[in-house]
Every structure is written in C-alpha cells, then in structure tokens.
Write a structure and sequence with these properties.
The chain is an all-alpha fold. It contains nine helices and no strands. Helix 2 runs antiparallel to helix 8, helix 5 crosses helix 7 and helix 8 runs antiparallel to helix 9.
Length: 237
C-alpha cells in the first residue's frame, strides 16, 4: 500500500505537489466558467421570455445546439476555431505565425458556453414559476422595474433556481476534465502525464477521482446550505 502511494509524495520524488496544482487549476476553471455561464444563462433566459421574435429564436438556437452536441466538440470548435480565426485575421496584416488564445481562457469560454445553455433553462423555469400577482402588485404601487427585480423577483428566483444551478455546477466541474485536450495542465492532464512518466496510471487516476469527488461533495453541501437559506421563512405544505 505504501509502495503504491509513493508516487503521490510531495516534492521532487513524487507528483503530489503537481496534482495539487492541477486541482487548483481545475477548481479555478470550474468557478470562472460557472460564473460566466450564469451571466449567459440569465441574459439568454430574459431574451427568450421577453425579447423580440428573432431574439427568442436566437436564444432557442443557442440552447438547442449547445445542449445537443457533445461538450468535447464545443471545446474543439472554440479552441481550434479561435486559433484559425485569429490566424486568418493576422495574415491580413502580414503576420504568418501561429496565434492561439491561452488555454485557461479558452477553457473558461467553452465550459461557460456549455453551462450557460443549461443555466438558461434553469433561469427560464424559475422566472416562469414566480407568482405573477406579486409582480403586478409591485408595479401597481409604483415600483420601478429594478426595484421589482431586487425586492420581489430575485429572492424568489434564487429559491426556485438553486437546485437546478447546483446540477449545472456539477456539470461544469466535470466538464473541466475535457479541457485537458487543449494542453491545459488541470487535474486530469496532470494525472495523465504523471501516469505516463511513471508508467503507472492507477494511483494518479485514483487520486484525481478522489479529488473530483471531494470537490463535488463539498460543493453539494454548500448548495444545500444555500437552498436552506433561500427557503427560510417559506411554509412547507
């Protein structure tokens, strides 16, 4: 048992510190892409519910395509597609070299783009579940649209949306492993490189699985606390 754990040692004789660094990159990527997806989701949800016909169609196209194709394909399209586009633009100005965006930035865009499609439907369902009478009453007493959103809609929106947003977070966390194809040294790529270097993949992949499980379990507890906070004062049937 101790022999199997030796490759996970901290320092020059093991890969423990590299795995820890990769885990922090994974966590940072998951958080940044999740927040980016929340912004996209909120904007597209409002567009699908209250925008013009063409805006609603654009929102439907976005959510249908992104949720209908593999996540890895979205990452490939953004990573290699952005490099191709930047290269073509650079060629117009005489630059012949290869241009690509930073892997972490592309990963944030790709995973955020994916989670945004799922967040859109979560927010759309939560907005439609809001009691219409409360919103109409708030407008009747002269509340501005921003005040209606802050005092009436937002607190209840969180209550309805948090369970679904917790699932979107789990999706974003696991999708970070796919960003390893771009060369970003997050947890999965670090584990793979370590396994290839030592010709023993099992301890590193097991360590990666345990770290993902730790992040997933810990964040689930945080979302449960958030749900209890959002539901404070609500009567149970």
């Amino acid at each position: 048992m101790l022999e199997m754990l030796k490759p996970l040692a901290w320092g020059p004789d093991g890969w423990g510190d590299e795995l820890a660094s990769g885990a922090m990159v994974t966590l940072g990527l998951a958080i940044s892409s999740y927040l980016f997806g929340l912004v996209i989701g909120m904007l597209v949800a409002w567009a699908k519910l209250g925008g013009s016909r063409w805006v609603r169609i654009a929102g439907d196209v976005y959510t249908t395509i992104v949720r209908g194709v593999p996540e890895l394909l979205v990452i490939y399209l953004l990573f290699f597609g952005s490099a191709n586009l930047l290269g073509r633009i650079a060629h117009l100005f005489g630059y012949k070299g290869f241009i690509s965006l930073p892997e972490f930035f592309v990963g944030t865009l790709a995973v955020g783009f994916i989670s945004g499609a799922y967040s859109t439907e979560v927010f759309r369902g939560a907005i439609q579940a809001l009691p219409k009478g409360q919103i109409e009453a708030a407008r009747a007493v002269g509340m501005s649209p921003f005040l209606v959103f802050r005092r009436i809609m937002l607190p209840q929106l969180l209550r309805y949306a948090l369970p679904g947003l917790g699932n979107v977070w789990q999706l974003s966390l696991k999708d970070t492993s796919l960003v390893s194809v771009t060369g970003l040294y997050e947890l999965m790529r670090t584990a793979h490189v370590a396994g290839g270097s030592t010709r023993d993949y099992f301890p590193f992949l097991l360590a990666a699985a345990l770290l993902f499980l730790l992040f997933s379990t810990g964040s689930s507890q945080l979302f449960r606390r958030g749900e209890r906070w959002a539901n404070r004062g609500v009567r149970r049937a």
